[in-house]
Amino acid sequence: MKGWIRLKDWLMEHKVYAIIFVIIAIGSGYYFFQQENQQLISSPTNTTNQNVELKEKEETAKVQEETAKVQEETVQKSEPLMVDIKGQIHQPGVYTANAGDRVIDVISRAGGFTELADQSQVNLAQHIQDEMIIYIPAMGEQGTDSTVVASGGGTVSAGQGQKQGKININKADATELENLPGIGPSKAAAIIEYRETSGPFKTPEDLKNISGIGDKTYEKLKDLVAVQ
Predict the structure, then answer these.
(1) Residue 131, by phi and psi: left (phi above 0), alpha (psi -120 to 50) or beta?
(2) Which of 26, 46, 93, 156 fits a 20 to 30 Å CA distance from 9?
(3) For 29-51, what is each residue's pLDDT tens digit?
(4) Any residues with CB less than 8 A from the CB of 182 and at least 6 apart, and which?
(5) How far apart are CA 149 and CA 165, in angstroms?
(6) CB of 148 within 8 A of CB of 97?
(7) What is the distance between the alpha carbons of residues 140 and 133, in angstroms, rounded to a whole number?
(8) Is residue 187 predicted with pLDDT exceeding 80?
(9) In this structure, what are the phi and psi dihedrals at residue 180, rounded to the nearest 5 degrees?
(10) CB-CB neighbours of 183 under 10 Å
(11) Is the pTM of this model over 0.70?
């Protein structure tokens, strides 16, 4: 009992120190509590959340990029194509076409074929390209064919589109041969018959051995064919 009274008296005399001690104890507890919270914030769970957010941002950016690309392609496809059609057409001239249009569509807009047009030399199913020149020859017209000058100035036959390499006249079938200027079904058959009966062509100039292929036609063929 006397000890408690003495402690009480001491506390009364030194209450300022007691208060300071209590404040220090509370401050220390708060400091350690904050340290634990900080550890929880930097825990693996939080790192995982950050990774998920980063991945979502990357996916969003990718989707936006793809959307922009599709929009750009759509704008390009929506731009009109200009085609110049000549020869045996009722209304020759420059016509506007849309992406996906074919030769037959432009011919229809130009009033269709004349009575003299040789339709056998025209690939009506060919897709239209910007800056095409389509020439429709007359029946019996020698040394010409329905030709297309595509964008960039490369000249190709109406059935070919932009030419990718030369046609091997020792291996090409009738369809491939008919893509060449001045070569219709009958001449393609004659070329195949020649190489089967007389052996392979040794030079492109041997094409002149085929009936109906003269100097003018050969001049158009020589840069488009090969024998190997």
Answers:
(1) left
(2) 26
(3) 666 656 665 655 555 555 566 67
(4) 143, 144, 145, 213, 217, 220, 221
(5) 16
(6) no
(7) 21
(8) yes
(9) -80, 145
(10) 31
(11) no
Report the b/e string of 95-114 with b at 16+ CB within 10 A. bebeeebebebbbebbeebe
Secondary structure (3-state) at 120: helix
Distances (CA, A) of 218 to 82, 158, 205: 30, 17, 7
Amino acid in position 143: G
CA–CA distance from 207 to each of 18, 159, 214, 227, 228 (Å)?
118, 20, 9, 10, 14
CA dist list (Å): 155 to 64, 105, 218, 220, 223: 40, 21, 15, 10, 11
Number of Cβ atoms within 10 Å of the Cβ of 39: 9
Locus of tokens 């408690």: 4
Q: What angle do CA 200, 217, 185 make, to 5 degrees?
A: 65
